[in-house]
Specification:
The complex is a heterodimer of chains A (114) and B (112).
Chain A (H helix, E strand, L loop, with lengths): L3 E4 L2 E4 L5 E7 L6 E7 L5 E8 L5 E2 L8 E4 L5 E6 L8 E8 L11 E5 L1
Chain B lengths: L3 E4 L2 E5 L4 E7 L6 E7 L5 E8 L4 E4 L2 E6 L4 E6 L8 E7 L8 E2 L3 E6 L1
Parallel strand pairs in B: 2-11
Antiparallel strand pairs in B: 1-3, 3-8, 4-5, 4-9, 6-7, 7-8, 9-10, 9-11
The chains are: A mainly beta (114), B mainly beta (112).
C-alpha cells in the first residue's frame, strides 16, 4: 500500500497554542488530501478535503479559521490547529487521495490540550 | 450526503468461530466499499475492499459481500484468531480515491 508519513505522532500542549501537523505521501503524488478526526471510541469523521494549490473544502461544523490546511505540493499537506483548546483534543489522521486507488492513512497525531 | 450504519458495535467470538459485521449505506451512487482494521492507538489499515461491479470478494480468511439493491455490504472473517481482535470500520464512497464516509465501527474480541 501507499507510504504515508505523518508527524508529529503525539503532541501535548497548553490551551491557546497552535499546533502544526504534517502529512507526506512518500511514494506517489497526492492531488487530494483528506483530513479526518477521531475522538476516543468513535469513528473517523472527515474534516476537510484539500487539492494541491487550491483552498480546502471543509465539512459542515468544521471551522476553517481554526483548522488551517495547506496543500502546497503534491507530496505535502499540513493541518494547523490554531489556538487549540481542550475540546480540540483528538486523533487527527491524514489520507492522501489518488484517483481510483484505495486510501491509506498516516500514523495519526494524538493531540492533547491541557 | 452519504450515511453509513454499522452493526454490531461490539462482537465477541470464540477463537476459530466466524465473525460477521454488517453495514448499510444510503447513497445509491456509492460504488466503492473498503473495510479497515484499527488496533488501539494505530492507523486504520485497509484489509479488503469491493467495488459495485462485484458481488463478493475473498482474501484468505476474509470475505466481503455486497448487495447493491438492498444497499448493504458485509465483512466475514472465518477461523478467527486472537490477533483479529481490533475495531473494524466499513466505509463507502463514490469511488476509490474519493472521500470516505465511515460506519460507527465494530469492536471485535476473539477469545482464545
Amino acid at each position: 500500500g501507499a507510504v504515508v508519513s505523518q508527524h508529529p505522532s503525539w503532541v501535548i500542549c497548553k490551551s491557546g497554542t497552535s499546533v502544526k501537523i504534517e502529512c507526506r505521501s512518500l511514494d506517489f503524488q497526492a492531488t487530494t488530501m483528506f483530513w479526518y478526526r477521531q475522538f476516543p471510541k468513535q469513528s473517523l469523521m472527515l474534516m476537510a478535503t484539500s487539492n494541491e494549490g487550491s483552498k480546502a473544502t471543509y465539512e459542515q461544523g468544521v471551522e476553517k479559521d481554526k483548522f488551517l490546511i495547506n496543500h502546497a505540493s503534491l507530496t505535502l499537506s499540513t493541518l494547523t490547529v490554531t489556538s487549540a483548546h481542550p475540546e480540540d483534543s483528538s486523533f487527527y489522521i491524514c489520507s492522501p487521495g489518488q484517483a481510483n486507488q484505495p486510501q491509506h492513512f498516516g500514523d495519526g497525531t494524538r493531540l492533547s490540550i491541557l | 450526503g452519504e450515511n453509513v450504519e454499522q452493526h454490531p458495535s461490539t462482537l465477541s467470538v470464540q477463537e476459530g468461530d466466524s465473525a460477521v459485521i454488517k453495514c448499510t449505506y444510503s447513497d445509491s451512487a456509492s460504488n466503492y466499499f473498503p473495510w479497515y482494521k484499527q488496533e488501539l492507538g494505530k492507523r486504520p489499515q485497509l484489509i479488503i475492499d469491493i467495488r459495485s461491479n462485484v458481488g463478493e470478494k475473498k482474501d484468505q480468511r476474509i470475505a466481503v459481500t455486497l448487495n447493491k439493491t438492498a444497499k448493504h455490504f458485509s465483512l466475514h472473517i472465518t477461523e478467527t484468531q486472537p490477533e483479529d481482535s481490533a475495531v473494524y470500520f466499513c466505509a463507502a464512497s463514490l469511488g476509490a480515491g474519493n472521500m470516505l464516509t465511515f460506519g460507527g465501527g465494530t469492536r471485535l474480541m476473539v477469545k482464545p
